[in-house]
Amino acid sequence: MGRPPCCDKVGIKKGPWTPEEDIILVSYIQEHGPGNWRAVPTTTGLLRCSKSCRLRWTNYLRPGIKRGNFTPHEEGMIIHLQALLGNKWAAIATYLPQRTDNDIKNYWNTHLKKKLKKFQSGSEAADANHQLASRSYGESSKNESSCIRIGENSSVYASSAENISRLLEGWMRSSPLQPNTNLNGTSNHDNKYYGDFVKMIPNHESNEVQCYRPQNVEHGMPCDHDLEGMFVFDHHHHHQRLNSMAACDKSSCDSSQKGSDSSGLIEQDKVCFEHEEKVKMDNANPPLSFLEKWLLDESAAQVEGAMELPPIF
DNA sequence: AAGCTCGACAACCGCGTAAGT
DNA sequence: TACTTACGCGGTTGTCGAGCT
């Protein structure tokens, strides 16, 4: 005998998730953590299959997800990585920790593919990805401050973090637990998800969503430093980031060939972060991988040539 | 105002692989 | 080792809202 069946198809609800279902799922994950999806419907009573629960969590409810408003830099990353990796959305998503593979895939299909097509009609097809990505990077670096900060564009977070925070506010008010406390003698592991959500409560006065998370969060969550790396973007940091990415690209090759589950991504992320910290510390010049060289070349090229590129959008 | 079209995105489906028994 | 199922991924579909006629 193998594993018991995931869930019988009879009585399984389909279609959009309701806020009530979201609360149930989030509550469960706060208590048990993501994983063991098979147990979710049976434990919570949700009339959803385990697959649907996992998808809902990873694509929508998971804290730290940034939604909508892809930045030019993100666009450039996606275009580059798509050209490099093909439609390996999960792999591409590892370079954009705040974006889900589904989000990236949708954005590619609805926006970038069209842009590329449009662009290809006006230039060499073989070079379209390259140039379009360069342009995107260029727009990013031309940005006055070259910084993207939480709160300055609060709408970016509104759809996921704020929604779930709202859902949880009521739930937490009725809960005796406090964030990151250990009242019942259980391990911190039992409460860490709770802590994550607490730190996403929106600031209604400033219309900002606080999205701080503790370090070393497991189960597929990027660490704070990664978020920082995405929110605060400048040219210097960009190069460091690219170095890190390139290192991750190399280091993750083996693991990605084996398959990329959430724990694999965490390990990858840790490696990314560790490498990034190392780069910061010694400011060394590690050997460049193909990806790194390409990205750095583009980054440099855009400085020289971005201003000359004709607007295509 | 009603109907139609299109875009965006959430969710589903099917398949390959990993993992449990 | 073989069998069975969970999990993760990529492709596709369904739904909803905005804009247009």
Number of domains: 3
Order of helices and strands: HHHHHHHHHEEHHHH
Name the poorly predicted regions.
Answer: 1-8, 139-163, 170-292, 294-313
Strand proportion, as a percent range, falls in under 5%
Strand arrangement, major sheet = 1-2
Please state the structural category. mainly alpha
Rg over alpha carbons: 21 Å
Mean pLDDT: 55
The main sheet comes to: 2 strands, antiparallel
Distance between the termini: 57 Å
Helix content: 55-70%
- Please provide the count of β strands: 2
Specify the number of helices.
Answer: 13
Q: What overall form do the CA principal axes indicate?
A: elongated
Question: How would you characterize the overall build of this protein?
Answer:
The chain has 313 residues and is mostly helical. It folds into three domains: 19-61, Arc Repressor Mutant, subunit A (Orthogonal Bundle), CATH 1.10.10; 72-150 and 225-308, no CATH class; 155-210, no CATH class. The chain has helices at 19-32, 39-44, 50-61, 72-85, 89-93, 101-121, 125-142, 155-173, 192-198, 224-231, 235-258, 262-282, 290-305; strands spanning 202-203, 208-209. Strands 1-2 form a two-stranded antiparallel sheet. It is elongated, with a radius of gyration of 21 Å. The chain starts with 18 loop residues before the first helix and ends in an 8-residue tail after the last helix. The structure holds a DNA duplex (21 and 21 nucleotides). Residues 9-65, 66-116 form the HTH myb-type domain. Transcription factor. Residues 9-61, 62-112 form the Myb-like domain.
